[in-house]
Amino acid sequence: MTAPAQRSSTACDACRKRKVKCNGQHHCQQCLHHGLQCTYSHVPNTSRAAAKRGRVLSEFRNTEIQSSPKALLLASPCGGQNVLQELEGLLPTDLDSICTLYACNVYPTHPIVEPFKLRACVTSMSDDRSAAAFVYAVSATCSHLAPSTGEDSQFRTHRIETLINKSIISLGSLTRQTSISVKTILTRVFLANSLVAVGDPRTAFLYLRQAASMLETYRLPSKITTELCDARLVRLYWLIFIHERYQCIAEYRTALLQPLPHAGPDGALADMAEHIGFSRIVSLFRLLDDIFIQYWLGEGGIAPPITSVWVQHKNEEFRQDEAEAATMLSSLDIAQQVDLHVTRHWLLVLVWRIAMANRLLGEDSSEHCLSLRYPLHVSARLLLLLQDIPSQAIEIHGVSIVQKLFELADTVADITMHASSSAPSEAELHHLRQLWDILSSYTQLDATRREIIDDKFRRIFAYDGAST
Fold it and tell me: Would you say 439 and 446 are in contact if contact means Cβ atoms under 8 Å apart?
């Protein structure tokens, strides 16, 4: 015969008012389940001293949690009417500004959940955990993309981490009863974006994989059919496809998602004028095919031997994509143009690096894709395209764009210091200085990369007698 469960002699305020059984814990089971604030104001005389000690410990733990940048906040996100006030206390600006930032800077590159639906989620987040998770994840993303106000970077990271943790707690663990929707999948994509921003690409990839697995539950049309499904699902698939391909390059991981055959620039995206920029990015990332990924990962036993013909053909594909995109540039805003320009030139350098690793480079003209100095030509050309574009149009893309610029600059610095047979020209030094100045101005560049690039460029300019 089992012993009866021990009953707490102290009930929290919410359980006392509702006249339900309370386990007397710091965050009791009833309050955790219903998303209520758990407080104890009634203490029996027999346990007053013990309760006082517990209350002191509880207050100390709460203070420690709120002051620790790495702490996982345990308070339930669905805490009644105070949830909006709590959220605004975590934001660098007010909620209206976050919604505007989402509409202007996030939605164009993530055209899945419309801005008016975000506002609806804000209204319902006190009672809807999935809505709360989405709002917290969006707020974390927008906090990272918001223009720098000169605040301490550690405090900024702490705020983003807190919003990430709030979103994760709101999502809860995966169970058989977990609801899967476009909103909950996109929440995981935003969590992945924000986790990369705070320097946790490993956990970011976990949430990205989770989003891809959840998307499979919708059973998009198979590769052999031309049937169209919900355009939002198609766009969501392409969004996760883009993020996964980027992670494959940045973190040397394999790709699982395959491109859909029926929804490229001429499919479910092209009939939506406001999503032309997203359509062009899809076209660009489709060029990162499985052969490209295998070459990048060094999987020589899987892919056929790499040749100079493949390198030249891949470069021509990027040039053709650029020519097609040029006819649409007038329809794109500046931020979308920046995304296309930086991503395309970053990919050209990746192809060059694959060629270099396979000893396919020669002493051709610096403008030739198999030339040793080709990245210098690529970076100079990119800077020419970006010269009249304000830095804010680059910063709003967050870590990914800055990391692409870092990879390009790092490659150019290595060529200048070690691989080039001749000293850089005055024009090359000028654009190297521009590239260094641009990277130095971005707060999203982490301390390790900043130290690497500063060290290399100081050595370049010190060697050539230029001012540092």
Answer: no
Cβ-Cβ contacts under 8 Å for 66 (sequence gap 6 or more): 73
d(CA 318, CA 345): 9
Would you give the DSSP letter of residue 148?
P
Burial 89-119 (b: 16+ CB within 10 A, else e): ebbbeebeebbebbeebbbbbbbbbeeeebe
d(CA 279, CA 325): 10
> Mean pLDDT of successive 10-residue segments in the chain (468 residues)?
50 79 76 70 51 48 41 41 78 85 88 92 90 94 74 80 93 83 94 91 93 81 50 88 91 88 52 72 91 85 83 94 87 83 93 91 77 88 82 72 88 80 73 83 80 88 55
Residue 262 CA: distances (Å) to CA of 230, 255, 277, 284, 293? 13, 20, 18, 16, 22
Q: pTM to 2 decimals?
A: 0.76
Token output for 404: 């692409």
> Where on the phi/psi map is residue 282: left (φ > 0), alpha (ψ -120 to 50), or beta?
alpha
For every residue of 29-61, DSSP letters joined together read HHHHHHT---------GGGHHHHHHHHHHHHHH
> What are the start-end ranges of the H helices in 68-198?
82-90, 95-101, 115-124, 129-145, 153-171, 182-197
Whole-angstrom CA distances from 339 to 191, 343, 386 are: 21, 6, 11
CA distance 156 to 85: 19
Distance of CA 369 to the CA centre of its chain: 30
- Fill in the amino acid letter for 317: E
At residue 81, the pLDDT reads 53
Contact 318, 307 (CB under 8 A): no
- Read off the amino acid at residue 240: I
Instruction: Count Cβ neighbours within 10 Å for each residue of 211-231 and write b for 16 or more, e otherwise.
Output: bbebbeeeebbeeeeeeebeb
Hey, CA dihedral for 213, 219, 222, 227, is it positive or negative?
Answer: negative
Pairwise CA distance, residues 24 & 224, whole Å = 58
Q: Which residues pair with 371 in a beta bridge?
A: 362
- Residue 153: per-residue pLDDT: 73
Predicted local confidence at residue 1, as pLDDT: 45
Q: How many residues does the chain have?
A: 468
- Provide the pLDDT for residue 5: 43
DSSP at 147: P
